[in-house]
Amino acid sequence: MLDADALRAVADAGAVFAIAPGSTEALYAAAAEAPIPFLPAIATASELMRGLEHGHRRFKFFPAESSGGIAALKSFAGPFASVRFCPTGGIDASRARDYLALPNVITVGGSWMVPKPALQSRDWDAIASLSRAAAARATRA
């Protein structure tokens, strides 16, 4: 979701929350009026501070791996102790557990659970199986 119109469309379609790969002032304004929770993405401390100014305390950290990964999230923990993250971007199933071990990470997203061939062929069973395996790993973290 990239703009306010998309946020409204997502809500109108029945979504229970929305996630973006970043955020803009217009998107933050639309999120303030939206009937569903919005999870903006950040990659820098300045972006995080802007989101805090808009009342957010939960963020997608994207693209996680190329934005510093685990080391960056550890660095955010000091000055932003009350903030929690959902890192995505460049994370695979084997790295997810390392992220989940961080106290400021509440969940991890990854396209490994929805591989393009399974999505294109509408192989919902394969996607469900990969998602269940990811959730099982998360509960053991």
Would you write up a description of this structure?
With 141 residues, this protein is mainly alpha-helical. It has a domain at 40-112. It is 46% helix and 10% strand. The protein contains seven helices and five strands. Strands 3-4-5 form a three-stranded parallel sheet. It has a two-stranded parallel sheet with strand order 1-2. Strand 3, helix 3 (45-53) and strand 4 form a beta-alpha-beta unit. Helix 1 packs parallel to helix 2. The longest helix has 16 residues, at 124-139. It is globular, with a radius of gyration of 16 Å. The two termini are 30 Å apart.
Main pleated-sheet profile: 3 strands, parallel
What fraction strand?
5-15%
DSSP helix count?
Answer: 7
Report strand order across the widest sheet: 3-4-5
| Low-pLDDT windows of residues | none
Quaternary arrangement of the chains shown?
single chain
The class by helix and strand makeup works out as mainly alpha
Give the strand tally.
5
Mean pLDDT: 94
| Distance between the amino and carboxyl termini | 30 Å
Listing every helix as H and every strand as E from the N terminus to the C terminus, the arrangement reads HEHEEHEHEHHH
- Global Rg: 16 Å
Gross morphology is: globular
Helix content: 40-55%
Ordered list of secondary-structure elements with their pairings:
Layout: H1 4-12, E1 18-19, H2 25-33, E2 38-39, E3 41-42, H3 45-53, E4 58-61, H4 69-77, E5 84-87, H5 93-100, H6 116-120, H7 124-139
Parallel strand pairs: 1-2, 3-4, 4-5
